[in-house]
Amino acid sequence: MSGHSKWHNIQGRKNAQDAKRGKIFQKISRDLYQAAKAGDPDPANNAQLRLVIDKAHAANMPKKNIDRAIAKASGIGGAKFEEVTYEGYAPGGVAVMVSALTDNKNRTAAAVRSAFTHAGGSLGASGSVSYMFDRKGLIEVLRDGLDKSEDDMLIDALDAGADDMKASDEKFQIFTDPSNMTSVRDALQEKGYELDTAEVTMIPQNRTAVPEDKVKQYNHLIDELTANDDVADIYEAGQLPEDAE
């Protein structure tokens, strides 16, 4: 039994690491797509795309994943990709929005609906949960290695045009109007800040506690959506119990 228990623990850790890596790759894929779509798909002529590619390499993201994300934006291979948003409720009544990039909306819709159904959630109509989220620019600066006090960081953020800032032990989260995110990002970079995140995202207005007996199903939904290559981002309003894995 001890050998089985050790294998189970190792496998559990590996699955958790794989899930975390998948979420990182998913986020980078979306950033690659957006950078290529907004500018030139050739990184030699697109500084923002070069920055995201460097981030992909640092995360050990496979080259085929990088190329696929850029191809989606540039239409290489003749495929036409569309941006689609799905809305629904995860187990426990938690609001979830799913942003996808797809060349086959029927396939993607079926896969997203299946993920919600498998987890005991439900897919809703357009507008069913989006009103619970605010579209904001989000810039994150890690505290590690940063010689700045919270007051100094706040002053620099406000001077750059940010609306608000939240601080934690690990990072500063700077919020902007979506239309100002790029200018605030550039201003902070000019001041010498290294940014961990700079994006326009959906922020939940409130978070819903996930019941302990629904945590496994909730995580299963997020993991299944993350594993779908068509899914570009997941916005969820869940608050997991502190001791949940």
Automatic annotation (TrEMBL):
Keywords: Cytoplasm, DNA-binding, Transcription, Transcription regulation. It holds the Pfam family Transcrip_reg. GO terms for molecular function: DNA binding. Residues 5-75 form the TACO1/YebC-like N-terminal domain. Its main location: cytoplasm. The keyword Heme does not apply. Residues 1-22 are annotated as: Disordered. InterPro entries: Integrase-like_N (IPR017856), TACO1_YebC-like_2nd/3rd_dom (IPR048300), TACO1_YebC_N (IPR049083), Transcrip_reg_TACO1-like (IPR002876), Transcrip_reg_TACO1-like_dom3 (IPR026564), YebC-like (IPR029072). Coiled coil: none annotated. Residues 81-236 form the TACO1/YebC-like second and third domain. It is found in: Cytoplasm. HAMAP family: Transcrip_reg_TACO1. Belongs to the TACO1 family. PANTHER family: TRANSCRIPTIONAL REGULATORY PROTEIN YEBC-RELATED, TRANSLATIONAL ACTIVATOR OF CYTOCHROME C OXIDASE 1. NCBIfam families: PRK00110.1, PRK12378.1, YebC/PmpR family DNA-binding transcriptional regulator. This is Probable transcriptional regulatory protein HUK45_01865. It comes from Limosilactobacillus urinaemulieris.
